[in-house]
Write a structure and sequence with these properties.
Layout lengths: L1 E5 L6 H14 L4 E5 L5 H11 L8 H25 L3 E5 L2 H11 L4 H12 L6 E6 L2 H10 L13 H17 L4 E5 L4 H16 L2
Parallel strand pairs: 1-3, 1-4, 2-3, 4-5
Helix pairs in contact: 1-8, 2-3, 3-4, 3-5, 4-5, 4-7
Bound molecules: thymidine-5'-phosphate (TMP).
Length: 206
């Protein structure tokens, strides 16, 4: 089972899933929690290049290819082996982030980015994608209040960019209704955690 968490900046997806992971482990499932870009040493090195605030000259297609490269390495080293061992892999961001950020917001085209990523992932789609939907203004406000989280190159984009990210995610949820569940991330932590757990358990029982 391959579960991905998606959403704009500050949607609280990482916090929301913590409780779900603990609960799944309690129920006896083996869970691997990981993130993109990164998750393995090589992929983390690529992450540092992508998100470095000093890399203001990075070309949009270079950015898209680096995300796809990092994704491939992470699949090969971590995700595929864990799935083969029967574990549940929960990954903070995956393919749909590239579709929303590079395809939608950067304007490279969702289908162009999908093609690059189908090559990189050998057509590996998640079984379940939880979209933590939130208005960008609210998400960015949350980040500003969270002193633990370092501001990255993409956080610095204008609000229109973040609006396009959100809209593309919502469009993707309609394009892939079988694997997408949209969670209202503006609700309280408890409500968001409950919706997260319910969605995962429903998929596991399918
Ligand atoms: P995060 O670790 O805080 O989620 O930051 C990763 C950033 O990278 C975030 O701004 C979203 C962005 N991103 C893309 O633009 N494309 C991608 O494919 C992925 C995985 C992330």
């Amino acid at each position: 089972m391959f579960i991905t968490l998606e959403g704009p900046e500050g949607s609280g997806k990482t916090t929301a899933v913590k409780a779900a992971v603990a609960k799944l482990q309690e129920l006896g499932y083996q869970v691997v929690q990981t993130r993109e870009p990164g998750g393995t040493p090589i992929a983390e090195q690529i992450r540092n290049v992508i998100l470095d605030k000093a890399n203001t000259k990075m070309d949009p297609r270079t950015e898209a290819l680096l995300y796809a490269a990092s994704r491939r390495q992470h699949l090969v080293e971590k995700v595929w082996p864990a799935i083969k061992e029967g574990k549940i892999v929960i990954c903070d961001r995956y393919l749909d982030s590239s579709l929303a950020y590079q395809g939608g917001a950067r304007g490279l085209g969702v289908d162009n980015i999908l093609n690059v990523n189908l090559f990189a992932t050998e057509n590996t789609y998640p079984d379940l994608t939880l979209l933590f939907d939130i208005k960008p203004e609210l998400g960015l406000e949350r980040i500003a209040k969270n002193s633990d989280r370092e501001v990255n190159r993409l956080d610095l984009e204008k609000i229109e960019f973040h609006n396009k990210v959100r809209q593309t995610f919502l469009d993707l949820s309609k394009r892939y209704p079988d694997r997408y569940i949209v969670i209202d991330a503006s609700k309280s932590i408890e409500e968001v955690q409950k919706a997260t757990m319910d969605a995962i358990l429903a998929r596991l029982c399918k």
